[in-house]
């Protein structure tokens, strides 16, 4: 088989897999839009609620602006197909992010790897609490704004890496402008990324200011200004979301504690187990391949970004009825996805090094442990998706069902 023929075969396999995935996503989202949306209803999700907001004229994001016309053009199927396209876009952007680690692999192979990795969910374990409650994972099937945020958020971060690369010399203003526009566009869908990105960037700029002793201040100032349009959008969105009296955000120490409403974070067993089940692969990479990982700026920044998002989610809560929604945890979700990309990239580079003959420090064993953890996440995610397709709620208590031989 010639190289050209192999390329065509890979493209055929990749496009077929993506087509099947897109059809499955469109079908799932259509069922979710037809569901009454109650906690115990089949195919329950946030999609119907977001559609109702748009129909009532509650416009607070680009999502609201898109789902209205999509519904007018194609009804529920119009929104379902639109969301399927956003899923495909997220997979394509993730594949682009893998390119430095898979520079020798053709584009269709990267797309297939991206598709498989993005099936990953928190790992299954006996009596592990809930599938979703308390978990932090990059792929979400039940929230309209997050699904639309994902590709633009990752594009914005990848563009930031390119813009930051020029900080050591003359700042590439074109790369800076592209990154700023993408960050603003991502914020227009959901503010979850910039809410963590802005503080992380501030810490990075302070560190650079100290390192360069102020010699790079002009570059640092311009880079810092990149978040201003996004902050402006956050203020506009807040005027809509926090319009009710007494609504807003507060430190968790200053609100009345309610363990039945604070379902995320370290407040109940299910949430703690959910968090631990989410971090198996990234923790394995950090522990077993940490020295390799720490050499790359992208890994270090993604870890910082995720750390800031987690700190905000643990320390801040919304007031009033929105306390139950735990919306600040969307920050760790999207930032974990960025961190997952870099963790997978570190693992793939280690695999390439082992294949090239580098075997020191039990590298093969460390790679195998990390790979087993990733496979565990992926298999668990496929089981989770099958259950969603069957009509189970995304908020599934593990103790209440049996899947195959479990």
From TrEMBL:
Membrane-traversing stretches: 9-30, 77-95, 145-164, 171-187, 222-242, 270-289, 301-317, 329-348, 368-389
Keyword terms, alphabetized: Membrane, Transmembrane, Transmembrane helix
Keyword Transmembrane helix annotated: yes
Keyword Transmembrane helix applies: yes
Protein name listed in UniProt: Uncharacterized protein
Organism of provenance: Candidatus Gemmiger excrementigallinarum
């Amino acid at each position: 088989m010639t190289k050209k023929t192999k390329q065509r075969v890979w493209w055929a396999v990749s496009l077929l897999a993506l087509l099947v995935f897109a059809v499955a996503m469109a079908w799932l989202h259509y069922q979710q839009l037809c569901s009454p949306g109650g906690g115990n209803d089949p195919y329950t999700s946030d999609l119907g609620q977001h559609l109702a907001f748009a129909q009532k004229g509650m416009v607070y994001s680009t999502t609201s602006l898109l789902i209205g016309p999509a519904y007018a053009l194609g009804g529920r199927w119009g929104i379902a197909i639109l969301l399927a396209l956003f899923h495909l876009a997220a997979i394509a952007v993730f594949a682009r992010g893998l390119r430095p680690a898979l520079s020798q692999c053709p584009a269709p192979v990267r797309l297939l790897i991206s598709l498989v990795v993005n099936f990953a969910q928190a790992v299954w374990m006996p009596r592990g609490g809930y599938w979703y409650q308390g978990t932090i994972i990059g792929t979400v099937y039940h929230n309209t704004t997050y699904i639309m945020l994902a590709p633009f958020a990752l594009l914005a971060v990848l563009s930031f890496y390119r813009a930051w690369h020029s900080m050591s010399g003359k700042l590439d203003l074109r790369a800076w402008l592209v990154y700023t526009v993408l960050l603003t566009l991502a914020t227009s869908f959901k503010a979850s990324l910039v809410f963590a990105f802005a503080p992380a960037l501030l810490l990075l700029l302070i560190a650079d200011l100290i390192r360069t002793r102020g010699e790079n201040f002009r570059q640092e100032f311009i880079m810092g200004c990149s978040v201003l349009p996004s902050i402006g959008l956050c203020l506009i969105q807040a005027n809509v979301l926090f319009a009710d009296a007494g609504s807003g955000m507060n430190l968790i120490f200053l609100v009345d504690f309610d363990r039945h409403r604070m379902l995320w974070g370290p407040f109940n067993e299910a949430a703690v187990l959910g968090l631990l089940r989410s971090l198996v692969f990234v923790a394995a990479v950090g522990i077993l391949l940490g020295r390799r990982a720490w050499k790359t700026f992208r890994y270090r920044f993604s870890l910082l970004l995720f750390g800031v998002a987690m700190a905000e989610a643990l320390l801040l809560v919304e007031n009033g009825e929105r306390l139950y929604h735990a919306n600040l945890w969307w920050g760790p979700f999207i930032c974990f996805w960025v961190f997952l990309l870099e963790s997978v990239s570190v693992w793939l580079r280690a695999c390439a090094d082992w294949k090239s003959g580098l075997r020191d420090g039990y590298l093969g064993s460390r790679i195998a442990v990390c790979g087993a953890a990733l496979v565990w996440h992926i298999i668990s995610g496929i089981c989770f998706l099958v259950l969603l397709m069957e009509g189970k709620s995304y908020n599934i208590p593990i103790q209440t069902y049996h899947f195959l031989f479990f």
